[in-house]
Amino acid sequence: MVGYRELSSLMEKTVHKYSQLEKVKRTYASDVLLTQAEIHTIVAVGDNPAINVTGLAKVQGITKGAASQMVYKLVAKGFVKKETSPSSDSEVVLTLTSEGQREKDAHDAFHASTNNYFFKLLRDLPEETVDQMAGFLEAFDTALDDRLETLSK
User: Fold this and answer.
1) Residues 78-111 pLDDT 10s
2) What pTM value is reported for the model?
3) What are phi and psi of 80, to 5 degrees?
4) Which of 42, 20, 17, 14 is nearest to 29 (CA)?
5) Fold for domain 4-114?
């Protein structure tokens, strides 16, 4: 049986590797290099029509400032546009440009072809194990939120 320290070290190692992976740039539908954070923001905007920056931050689990900075980058690259909300003149909503939609579609296709390995790992697990993992990850996510809140005070 793996001890708590070993499990904690493995989680930390995995988080660090994922953080490194987030910074790797690649192309999808165009010759524009995008980080995982950028393409995942494009996907989040595409999957949540007329989302605002606050909603985007919540969906991605990042600060509003970080979401705003990312949106600024993606607007400058021509993938996201900011528009006045049809329901409120004071609210700005985010939508994908046609180029942004092409990037999202290419990313979805990329996942369909390459994520099979990761999805196969999950599909091969017993349903009870997947449920336990989901419960653990939700609790871990909440614990990280709590820790970030404590450190920001």
Assistant:
1) 999 999 888 887 889 999 999 999 999 999 998 8
2) 0.78
3) -130, 145
4) 42
5) Arc Repressor Mutant, subunit A (1.10.10)
